[in-house]
Specification:
mainly beta; about 110 residues; globular; seven-stranded mixed sheet
Length: about 110
């Protein structure tokens, strides 16, 4: 069965960096676009970044452009989200998502605070 397992969240100071990972299993990873979403308390879940199956095409929410980078390693069945210059408003639970079939990971908490 499809499984998506996120890791790498935590507490970081404003201006700091984190790298999230999402390990996928149960499907042919390179055949699917993947995305990262986030949900802050009291807010709807929203798209952060997406990447095509080959890793060539990417797109980002305006709020993270220039600060976050999505990438993937198809040999390791893993998608990453490198987050730099973090701001308190980036605080949220971050979810990995497979674009076809609506599969979600369990989420990983990112807290940006001094």
């Amino acid at each position: 069965q499809v499984q998506l397992v996120e890791s790498g969240g935590g507490l970081v100071q404003p201006g700091g960096s984190l790298r999230l990972s999402c390990a996928a299993s149960g499907f042919t990873f390179s055949s699917y676009a993947m995305s990262w979403y986030r949900q802050a308390p009291g807010k709807e879940r929203g798209l952060v970044a997406a990447i095509g199956g080959t890793g060539v095409s990417t797109n980002y929410a305006d709020s993270v452009k220039g600060r976050f980078t999505i990438s993937r390693d198809n040999a390791k069945n893993t998608v990453y989200l490198q987050m730099n210059s973090l701001k308190p408003e980036d605080t949220a639970v971050y979810f990995c998502y497979r674009n076809s079939g609506a599969y979600w990971g369990q989420g990983t908490q990112v807290t940006v605070s001094s």
